Amino acid sequence: MEPMPMPAAPPASSADVRVPWHASLRTRLMLWVGLLLALLLLAGFATAFYAARERVIADAEARTRYEARQAADRLDATMRSVRVSGEAMIELSNRVTLTRAELLEAMEAMLDANPATVGGLVALEPGVLADRAPLAQYVGIAARGVPDRDLLADGYDLAGREWYQRTLQATAPWWSEPYFNETAGGRYMTTLNLPLRDRDARRIGMVSLDVPVQALSSSLESLRMVAGQRTALFAPEGTIAVHPERGIAFAHDLPGYIASAGRNDLAPMEAARAQQRALQFTHSDPRSSLVRYSVLQPVGESGWTLQLSLGRGAMLSGLDSAMRMLGLIGGLVALLAALAVLRLARRITVPLTELTTSAGHFANGEFDWPVPHDTRGDEVGVMARALERARDSIRQQLDEIGRYAAEQQKLQSELDIARGIQMSMLPRDRDFASGDIRYRLQARLEPAKAVGGDFHGHFLQGDDRLWFVVGDVSDKGVPAALFMARVVTVLEVATAASDAPDRVLADAARHLSENNETCMFATVLCGVLDLATGDLAIASAGHDAPLLRHADGRIELIPLESGPALGFDAADAYAVWRGRLQPGDLLFAWTDGVTEAFDGDDLAFGEQRMHDAVCAADGAADACDGMLIAVHAFASGVAQSDDITVFGIDCTSQHGQAAWSMALHVPGERGRLADALAGIEEHLHANGIDKARIHDVQLIVEELLCNVMDHGAAAGADAMRLDATIDDGRIILDIRDNGTAYDPLTHPAPDLDADLDDRPIGGLGIHLVRELSQDARYHRDDGWNHMRVVLDATLPPT
């Protein structure tokens, strides 16, 4: 349908557009521009405020960096003094041969001379001292609350300690992580460990010096006196030794604190700490949205790092009093400007408000509401007259839109009816049996529009000749649907009067080329199957050759030479391929909507993916349903560009198990539940199952399928499969879905004696499954929920 022409508004006259200078709103606004200078003054105050704010922040950040460096230097001096004491002890032991007592006295003197240390360990391997005995003596400073301790006398396994072995292997002193030391008065300590070497560089022992963490923390006390300033101290491996929040120090390392407290804003600091490099950055605490400026400063070469941070609010606290005065002045200026703007608004906006009121009535459909000020000579008058013209134009457009909407609704209704008629023309899936051989014929069609040009069909000729056709009409939509109806009719008539597919296509070509002024055409695959022998004869009019999957899994593209499509000039000859469909074989045909389905990157589905889907299919139904699932999953939401049709015939022997299967989308194919129940009924009835038992099976299938359809999407499911097998006097139902693992059999049995109002919702369906079945089991298999229900094929005696 062509769009309705839009009525043109009458052109505006020059008298409506041009406004005399003395009546212009511009002239009136210029009379008040002096009052608006107050706004410029306010802007100046605001500019000064922001400039001062940035300067204060810059100064505070520079001070924070300076204080962080100074504090790190103080800590480094303390730690270097400890290291100097330890190295002096080592140098003494290397230069002078000391007895056990002299060595301990020297150690005590070194510790006493350094106020940061409270004790230390001297450990020597056997054979170092003159008495050849090992030494492991902890020397404590009694005045600092730490006693001496002979570790060997206490049975302490010094050689088995990781820190001892690490020190023996070390090439340089190293600081330990903080630890709680009850011997040293219940305090947290950190230890400097230094390896001992003899003159031949052999490892002979170690010296360690204990420093209370409080001794390091006390040097940071002055930093805590600044309001809003926070300090933290991290050991070499990230343990938090000092932290402003209670319960954090010694309980977390920095990565663990970031993870547990959700402090992702500190991630850059952890990376810098691990690399022992300085860092300055601004970050926001996600818990309080407080903005802070932090400086991370390594403490010399000790491996320790110091963090000093200052809150943005504390930086700007000194600016408050000045800003109050600035705000007061700005407020007075703003008040004067507001009074000026108010007076200006009263002069200008009153007529605009009245015009806005009229426009609001127009928006509500009240197009008879009057438009004021349409006689004025200024811009307001021009706007009023434009609004009047717009009102009249909108009124006309609404009338046109109403008529157009009615016609569109009628057209959509007709398209829906046409779709229903077209789909009803297509035959349903059927099974055919001949002796011990069963043929299952399955087809699926999904138009790209309301109606389409793809088709499939089958026609039974006599008792044992089954004709089938699959085709694709050029173009899409209503024209293709009409031509498709003609093609199907012509083919059905031709198959009734022919005994070979090439003759059917030749006859159809002659009829369809007559009076084909639209030059439409259709590609058609036509075949005939002898149900008694399985013999196949197939011919193609411009259509892709089908696939034949043999019982051994081998897939063959039938070598079929294609003739011209139907609808052009009449053709007399079409090549025929002849073969046989044997038990276990599957014949699969399609239209190009399958191979030419595109994903978001404009990549086609292609023949290889189609071959893979056919290879994995379990029969004709699974091949058709699985192909649609694979195509839609590949397209991943991209609009369907062409009609899709898939068609399959499989051949099975009726000896042994009798099986039936169906695949469905979740939850989009809820409407196919009736097809599943009808297919189950047809399959069981064909295998001699009692009608009452078929009813039980249908109840179970409906309950389990509805559970997946109703709740599967929320659990991540998008596909499910139903298999029914008759074997050894049993009916076996297998229902699979790829949702989150869930066992419905864990649902408690309902209390059937309780009142309905007191009984909880749910559980009755699973109770019904348990009661009707002989066995019901659930297991999880390779990402799929698998429910198996087993019933006797015959009803038990009553």
Structural features, described:
The chain is of the alpha+beta class and 798 residues long. Among the domains are: 229 residues, PPM-type phosphatase domain (Phosphatase 2c, domain 1, 4-Layer Sandwich); 143 residues, Heat Shock Protein 90. 40% of the residues lie in helices and 23% in strands. The strands form 5 sheets. Strands 1, 2, 3, 4, 5, 6 and 7 form a 7-stranded antiparallel β-sheet that branches. Strand 17 and strand 18 form a beta hairpin. Helix 10 packs across helix 11, helix 15 crosses helix 16 and helix 17 runs antiparallel to helix 18. The longest helix is centred in the N-terminal third of the chain and has 59 residues. The N terminus is likely disordered. Pfam families: HAMP, HATPase_c_2, MCP-like_PDC_1, SpoIIE. This is SpoIIE family protein phosphatase. GO terms for molecular function: kinase activity; phosphatase activity. One of its GO terms (biological process) is signal transduction.
